[in-house]
Amino acid sequence: MIRKIFAQALKEWRLFRRDKLLIALAAVMPIALMSLAGLTSSLRLRNVKLLVYDYDNTPLSRTYLETYGAAITFNLVPHGPHESPEFALASGRGRAALIIPPNFERDTRRGAAPIVQLMIDATDSNAATSLGNMAAAINASFARNTGVGEPPMLPVKMETRLWYNPGLSNPVYFGTGGLGMMLIIFPALLGALATAKEYEMGTIIQAYASSLTAAQWIAGKALVYVLVGVVEFVLCFALGMFVFSYRIPSDPAVLIVATVLYLFAGVFFGMMMGNATGTQSAAIQGVQMGSFLLSLLLSGYLFAISNIPAQIRWFSSLLPATHYIQIVRNSILRDVGWGTSYRPLIALALLALAFYALNVLQMRKMQFKA
Amino acid sequence: MGAFIRRYLALATKEFQQLRRNPGLIIQLMIPPTIVLVIFGYALNPKVRNLRLGVVDESFTAESRNFIDALTENVNFDVTRVYGRPQDAENALKNLELDLFLVIPDDFARSLNRGQTASVQVVIDAVDANTAQIAQGYLKKNLEDYNTSRGLEIPGESRPRRILIRAAHAAPPPGAVDVRPAYIYNPGLVTAWHYVTGVMSIIMFINASLVASALAVKEKETGTIEQLLMTPAQTVEMLFAKVTPVFILMMVVMFVALGTGILVFDLPMRGALWMFAVAGACAALAGIGIGVMVATVSKSQQQAQLLTFFVNPPITLLSGATSPIENMPEFFQRLSYFNPLRYLVTIVRGVTLKNAPWSAMWPNLVILSAFAVVLFSISAWRFRKQ
Question: Which of A29, A285, A307 sits opposite B47 (nearest CB)?
């Protein structure tokens, strides 16, 4: 039984070895994509172009502007001659415009509470909200520092500790999620292609006619791509250590077990697509929709799962990526070991088994009875 | 010229008939704009709500309960549990039962009543940097409000309850300068609009390239390209005929996507529709150009699609459709100028949400059409070389 699985795996490996383009893509693409996605997707704002309309032009108004300029969020930009703030925002020259009214200094000194307007391009509503809050915080600190208005009251002071990611670094977050994304896309893709190819070439008939059972045939085929996935895991992890400040967890066993289960789930899913469609291009489409797009959206890679509307949130738990990304973050960033990871681990194992069973069912229908 | 048009029409008819027999492709083109757009619009929500907050109240006084109420009286925080000891809250955070917890020391009320500054501690799980930063912002805002209202409070009177809305901001001391944010183009702060416009642009561009590469390679795979090469038709005519149906389909897809956005998400259409159409057409042409180029370098459909897997993610990521370009490292920001999708996204948002002035739109339109011409010419040249 085991020998048959290995024989099938060996045959599959020889086939895989022959496609040089596929090998190159399987090795290079995860690394290239992971670094690109990890470094470019960031929801935190930096260097936002802030157009300045200073109608007061006094030392105090300039100090006020400097407070904004000192923040890493804003990048002050002068406006063009006769350029209205509406026009400048509409043409995308800036994301926000700060308008300081005339008599700003005088009103401030009198305690007449002048009002500075901040026009924000709210096309990206999330960015707009955080810009508004950021500006309010900067304004409050300006008011405190210049000591105009009433003396600051600070009855309660808050000390914040940021655990696990004290620098609030986005690459750390996306880098760990990216590992999960890479390991679901490419092994699944390879599995889908290999299976669909058998249908296209007609060699699937040989599998039907052979003494292998469907379960053995699928297991043997999957084994190769899981091994390829393990290699990809090692490559991506190495990249993570250099670029995304991964640490080796104190108990790596959890991560390793989870990775193997996850890879099986991914490859079985891909093979399922291959079985169902029977053509390579349709199988690629299936994988692109099924494992890439859904995992990207609903697995907690981009946005926290709790933000997904309740009607479709249940779907997240059917995605292997959801559970795996949680385990990766648990072990690499939080370093919490088995305790919190056993539930996602069980979910991963169940999903892998379910995909395997579906594969066997699909195949068995067509197999010749021995 | 007459012969050119005649041959072109004949070839285009052939392509249309071929396409009609391939309903799978048409479905593949029509489904994404509706389903994907709706899922994206609803599912992608970066707003942070209902953060699970644990509380360790060692003070256990009216003042501390008042303080907790002040911090948590909006939808942003759910007090999940009150813990007796900080260690319990720590363990809960480690087990992912909490997103953050607050520790109020036992001298809290005493310090407050003496007029000294009382300190409280907050521990946040910062693995998700974005959420952690937002949570910190909420806390700061609520704390400033608490501090301001406490400063104004007359001893003995109960603290006035106030409702904090999302756009509420940290209040400066009375009499000092205040900043008023005005959220233009999207005063209701509808999250979906940003993603819907972004995804719409991605679909227009990426789908055109996928379908074009699939169609162009198919002829090569089935060997019928030899037949085509033997006809009197020239390669340019062939290419034009080949892309005509894809192009028309893409234009339909584009308006289906826009319609979905308007009907499902109330997307405003403030600018000129023709600009949207022209930009979409240029993007479709550029996408088709990339698709055909990919097709000319690959030997099979499988290779072509793997290559598009390689080409498309960078184009999507560097377009500003989903995450702001300003946040990227300098190098990637420069790189994004070579990305046709970037200009399409700007135009689509300019036309739908902003009603941007013509003087701001035309440079984008010119660059986008330049991309369309260049990419399409290169693909024609590569196609001819075969």
Answer: A307
Q: Hey, what are B75's tokens?
A: 């939808």
| Residue-by-residue DSSP string for A328-356 | HIIIIII---STTTHHHHHHHHHHHHHHH
pLDDT at A204: 78
Measured CA to CA in angstroms, residue A319 lies from A8, A168, A333, B38 at distances of 28, 27, 22, 19
Strands B51-57 and A156-163: unpaired
B130 contacts on A by Cβ (under 8 Å): 43-44, 170, 173
Which tops the pLDDT comparison, B175 or B89? Answer: B89
Distance, C-alpha B382 to centroid of its chain = 34
Cα-Cα-Cα-Cα dihedral sign, residues A132, A134, A135, A139: positive
The structure tokens listed for A219 are: 């297991």
* CA A290 to each of CA A262, A318, A357, B232, B284: distance values in angstroms, whole numbers, following the listed order: 15, 11, 18, 44, 25
Strand-pairing partners, residue A99, are A53, A117
A41 and B323 within 8 Å at the Cβ level: the answer is yes
Contact criterion met (CB below 8 Å) for A49 and B326: yes
Whether pLDDT at A5 is above 80: yes
Nearest to B136 among A45, A160, A284 (CB): A160
- Confidence label for A366 from pLDDT (cuts 50, 70 and 90): low
Interval A102-113: pLDDT, tens: 998 888 888 788
Domain boundaries, chain B: 51-152, 188-385
Q: Does domain A48-146 have CATH number 3.40.1710.10?
A: yes
Nearest to A344 by CA among A257, A237, A228, A246: A257
Other CB atoms closer than 10 Å to residue B341's CB: what's the count? 27
Q: Which CATH superfamily is domain B51-152 in?
A: abc type-2 transporter like domain (3.40.1710.10)
CB A29 within 8 A of CB B309: yes
Q: What are phi and psi of B219, to 5 degrees?
A: -60, -35
In angstroms, rounded to a whole number, what is the distance separating the alpha carbons of residues A112 and B94? 49
pLDDT at B181 > cutoff 60: yes
Instruction: State the Cα torsion A53-A58-A63-A68 to the nearest 10°.
Output: 0
Spatial distance between the Cα atoms of A293 and B37, rounded to a whole number of angstroms: 12
Angle formed at CA B50 by CA B190 and CA B125, multiple of 5 degrees: 110
Whole-model pTM?
0.78
A156-163 and B178-184 strand pairing: unpaired
- Residue B207 zone, left/alpha/beta (φ > 0; ψ -120 to 50; rest): alpha
Of residues A366 and B159, the one with the higher pLDDT is: A366
Query: Is the CB of residue B96 less than 8 Å away from at least one CB of chain A?
Result: yes
Strand-pair partners of B118 = A156
Indicate the residue type of B129: A
| pLDDT, average across residues A315-339 | 85
Give the gap in angstroms from C-alpha B9 to the nearest C-alpha of chain A: 29
